[in-house]
Design a protein that fits this description.
Layout (H helix, E strand, L loop, with lengths): L4 H4 L4 H21 L7 H4 L1 E8 L5 H7 L4 E7 L2 E8 L4 H8 L10 E6 L1 H30 L2 H24 L6 H27 L4 H29 L3 H36 L5
Antiparallel strand pairs: 1-3, 1-4, 2-3
C-alpha cells in the first residue's frame, strides 16, 4: 500500500460521507417524486414522441411551449431527432403545439404511448427484478466464500455502488426508465466482479496480504479504467437515448466502484483479517 495501513483506514471517511449525501439525495427524491428517482413516462404512463426534424431546432422554444414535457435533441450525421416525453396522452395536441416551431413531415413522427396502468406494472416488475438480482447475487457470494464478513462486504459494496449511482444520476437530471434499470443491473454485476476479484486474491492468493492486495488493485484498476474508456466513448458518440442512458449509469457507477472496492472493501477486509490473522504485513 502507498500509505501506512493505519492512515489508509482514515480514507473510509470519503465513501462514508458520499454515502450519507447520497442517502439525503434519495430521501429528497422520495419526498418530491414518491420513489428513489424521478420516473420516466415508461414507468408512469404517458407519451414518447420522436420527430425527425429538418433543419435546426430551437430547443428553448420547444421547451417553453411544452413546459411539462421532457425534451431531448439527438443529433447524428445529417439527422436531428427531437424526442418529447410527457404524461399528456393527447399526441395530436403535442404535435400541433410544436408544428410552428419545428420543420418536419408527418411521416417522420413516431408516437409511443404507455397507459398509466401499464407504466405502474413496469415499475413494479423493475423493482422486483432489482431486488431478486441482489438476493441471488448474495446467495452465490455466500456459497463462494462461505464466510460472513467477506460475503457481506461484497454485497454491501455493491449496494453502496447502486445507492451512490442513483444519487449521482439524479443530480444529473437522469430519469428512471427501463434502460436506466438495465444499466443498474449491469453495474451490479460489474461491482460484484471487482469485489470478488479482491476478496478471492486476499483469501486464496499467495504471498503476503499486502502483495495480494496490490496485485488485485493493479488488475482491478486496469479492468475498470478500460471499461470506463469504452463506456465514455459509447456515451459521447452514441446518439441513441437508450444506449446513452445505459452508458451514463455505467460511467457514474464505475467511478464510484473504484472508491468502494479499493477503499471500503480493502479496509474492511484488512480490519477483519487483523482480528483474525494480524492484518496487512
Amino acid at each position: 500500500m502507498i500509505f501506512p495501513i493505519k492512515k489508509y483506514r482514515l480514507l473510509i471517511a470519503i465513501p462514508a460521507l458520499l454515502l450519507l449525501l447520497s442517502l439525503l439525495v434519495i430521501y429528497g427524491n422520495f419526498v418530491n417524486y414518491g420513489s428513489f428517482m424521478q420516473r420516466d413516462v415508461e414507468l408512469t404512463g404517458g407519451l414518447t414522441i420522436t420527430v425527425k426534424a429538418m433543419g435546426r431546432v430551437d430547443l428553448g422554444a420547444v421547451e417553453k411551449a411544452l413546459p411539462d414535457a421532457t425534451i431531448r435533441l439527438a443529433e447524428g450525421y445529417d439527422s436531428r431527432m427531437l424526442i418529447i416525453q410527457t404524461r399528456e396522452l393527447n399526441d395530436k395536441k403535442i404535435i400541433d403545439t410544436i408544428r410552428p416551431l419545428v420543420n418536419f413531415s408527418d411521416d417522420s413522427v413516431d408516437v409511443g404511448k404507455v397507459e398509466p396502468v401499464i407504466g405502474e406494472i413496469f415499475w413494479q416488475q423493475a423493482q422486483t427484478a432489482l431486488i431478486m438480482a441482489f438476493v441471488f447475487m448474495g446467495i452465490v457470494v455466500l456459497i463462494l466464500f462461505r464466510s460472513v464478513v467477506p460475503s457481506f462486504t461484497v454485497i454491501g459494496c455493491a449496494l453502496v455502488d447502486i445507492i451512490m449511482t442513483v444519487a449521482g444520476i439524479s443530480l444529473l437530471d437522469v430519469r428512471l426508465s427501463l434502460p436506466v434499470f438495465a444499466g443498474l443491473l449491469m453495474l451490479l454485476g460489474y461491482s460484484v466482479d471487482t469485489d470478488i476479484l479482491l476478496t478471492t486474491r486476499v483469501l486464496k492468493g499467495t504471498g503476503t496480504l499486502r502483495e495480494k492486495i496490490v496485485s488485485a488493485i493493479k488488475t482491478g484498476l486496469t479492468m475498470t479504467s478500460t471499461s470506463i474508456a469504452a463506456v465514455a466513448s459509447l456515451f459521447i458518440f452514441s446518439q441513441g437515448t437508450i444506449i446513452s442512458q445505459i452508458a451514463i449509469v455505467l460511467l457514474v457507477g464505475l467511478c464510484f466502484d473504484i472508491m468502494n472496492t479499493w477503499i471500503t472493501n480493502v479496509i474492511v477486509l484488512d480490519y477483519w483479517l487483523e482480528k483474525r490473522e494480524g492484518g496487512i504485513k
